[in-house]
Task: structure prediction
Amino acid sequence: MIVSALLTAVGINLGLTVLLFALYSILRKQPWSSGLYAPRLVAVGGSQPSEFHIDRLLPSPGWVRRAWQPSEDDLLASSGLDAVVFMRIFIFSLRVFSVAGAVGIFVLLPVNYFGDQLREIDFSDLPNKSLDMFSISNVQDGSKWLWFHFSAAYLITGIVCYLLYLEYKYISGKRLAHYMASKLLPHHFTILVRGVPIGEGISVSDTIESFFTEYHPSTYLSHTVVHQTSKLRRLVEDTENLYKRLTHLKSTPHSSRNRQRSCFLGLFGKKNDLVGHYTKQLEDLEENVRIGQSDVSMTGEEVPAAFVSFRSRYGAATALNIQQSINPTEWVTEQAPEPQDVYWPFFSTSFMQRWIAKLVIIVASFLLIVVFLIVAAFVQGLTYLEQLEIWLPFLRKILKIAVVSQIITGYLPSLILHVLSSFVPPIMIAFSTMQGYISRSEIEKSACSKMLWFTIWSLFFANVLTGSVTSQLQIILDPKNIPERLAVVVPAQASFFIAYVVTSWTSVSSELTQTLSFIGHLLGRHCSSCKGDDFKIPSIPYHSEIPRILLFGLLGFTYFLLAPLILPFILVFFCIGYIIYRNQLFNVYSPKYDTGGRFWPLVHNSTIFSLILMHIVAIGIFGLKKLPLASSLILPLPVFTLLFNEYCRKRFLPIFQAYSAETLIKKDRADQNDPAISEFFNNLMSAYRDPALMPIHHSLNTNEHNSPLLHPS
Result:
């Protein structure tokens, strides 16, 4: 890629980013947009003024100030510790890449540009120069200037490890403080037991009661057996959907209520009142639900699993962390999620079914990565006009136009990659769901790990390796020039990733306007069948956003020595993302669960991986640049980094896996004098009851057709 193509990509994306910011600042001030751009404010009773003001049609930066002002404690109280951890990724990245950017731009970039490996300096034709001029490829082999890169590697490694340690320590403290400040919560006293051995003529409930009364007599409180309710759950969903439709009809004036004819596709025949029709259907459905609930209770369609509650947190932790049976596949325990976080459909899966599902998902994930590798090979080919002319010879004349070639090589490949990557997160969620996790938070954490691996292999390694193979096939045919050519080819791939980072400005800015939700909102306002839907506050998709952020950290560390020109663009991305996501967390997203910051170890491990990759690349580059001493002296860096990572694993990781006895007992003693504890234990016995078995009485509110079914709280 040449400089002018990069400038074209920067101009396009900068313009789109500013446009999206301005568009959002206007749209958010419209009365009808509160449910889309500030659903959290609507949920607590906030509303937009109805009077018209000219300010509504003018963009303003006031929302940026309001997103910046709240403190971290405000964010913790509003969105939980997971949101704090999410924003700490941005804070950590901004600190690291502020230092890395200063070193890269003011030290490494001039050293690279004034090298003479590739050409003589010619400032007069800078726009037509290749970006390789700004990479380490342009430094003369064996040059003493390479020691600046060597020193920078040690400097940035030390800074990153120091900041990582501070962040791990800070978030660990936040996690413990958050736990100690928490109220009485059901999942702190409850575990899930799977693989309950069932005897002949003995129910699952009696087996669990007998086992825990015998082996945990002083701490056992109660249990709730899981039932097979998949058919009943579908019936309950049909009832809820019909109730929503009826709610909408009853909220409209009587004269304008929808009516439909009884014959020939609703075109002929007598008109029927839909309210009365839906009311009768709702009553019938509720009766079927009650019959189904009774059948489940009477026939005992029990799953060999149950939520078991204890009188103390320490008692629950003891049962959780001790093997209950001599057979490890029986009486398998795991931490219970929050009641609203439970994912009920997959409780019927056995140990063997979950194990087989895990293997199938591993294979499916591998095949998905392979398919995306093929796509990445084609996308990378777009960055090289010579290859594109060979593949599509009928486009040769069009590709000769300067603007077209700059857009294709500088903007189109990264745009295609962004669009295709957006389809992957839902697939990973589906894969994780099939593995039989018991909670939505565990499903999302598993999908986050899968997305991270997919991002590393399919978006990073695939593009680096594919670009080298497809565009530099002569390297294999001419082994004598392998070291010299690789020193140019590997850093040259930075041009593609620079364009990818620049394109991400638009991608992350579209989070503000939420284009798809905006279109759906407009259609919903004019579609009567959509207006009856319950008002819902979305939750932030950590499984897709965290890997995307970590990818830019990987790119920044990997190309810090090779092509520091990428660093300011990455820094701009983190600045934009920091403001946007703070705004979204306060105004749009509401937490559906709280893992207590358990996403951070994944962030830490990804950063360590990025550092190790930077060291490996540095060792190879210094060798290819004929500076073997620097290559040898870099070897201790990955060793020290791995030792540092091992220390963090021993020092901090256990805090994210389980709470200590000291913490649990202190918390139990502090709650002994809580006057609400007796009522809490009474409610705990029914906290994990399957929602499909809960009584529903929607039709009781439909006796008067003109009375609303939903009352404002």
Observations:
- The chain has a mean pLDDT of 80.
- Residues 3-183+455-667 form one domain.
